[in-house]
Specification:
The longest helix is centred in the middle third of the chain and has 37 residues. It contains seven helices and no strands. It is mainly α and 216 residues long. Keywords: Cytoplasm, Phosphate transport, Transport. Plays a role in the regulation of phosphate uptake. Pfam families: PhoU (PF01895).
Amino acid sequence: MLEVYEKSVAELKHDMINLGMKVEQAVENAWKALEDKDIELAQRIYDGDDVIDDLVKNCMKKDLTISMMQGPVAADYRSLMATLKILSDLERIADHCADISHYVIHLEQTHHNVPLPQGIKEMYGVMASMVSDVIDFYKERGTSSQASLMRDKDDIVDQSFNNLMETLAAEMAAHPENSKDYIDLVLVIKYIERMADHANNIAEWLIYRDTNEIRI
């Protein structure tokens, strides 16, 4: 019975790591699509979100099956509970990659060639590093001290968001003929900010997994 349990836990961890890699790739590709105005790549990201959703559902099913049917001990139950929460945040990150891709397509269809605002690349880079870091942290226990640093990065993303909102408001006032494009960019920047929030949530759940401390 113990062997079956350990095998189930190992399979879930393997599937979670595979899911994390796909989400990380979606984050990377979403930036490429946005920066290069690559409609074909954006469409692939948008269409591929269903694949990630299916992987999330599969992991959730395995997690719940282990939790309900195999009687995990307290520490393992805490890990399974954290994994369930992490799955929700990973799904939302992938959803926002699809959302950004949708607006990449929309922005290109207007043919206005509105440039990306200065600072968005740096904001996206910090967020992407958060996603990459928490996926790495998931793989091993004892990373709570590193995971706690995600709050600092999230603060950087939040400040970048505020700065970019001011920049886009000024651009919209100066170029009202492109208002719809700037609104699209506002939404893109909001999605980036939310992705950082979800990465920070994952870090908090990893801290809970390792220390039994809830900070959310």
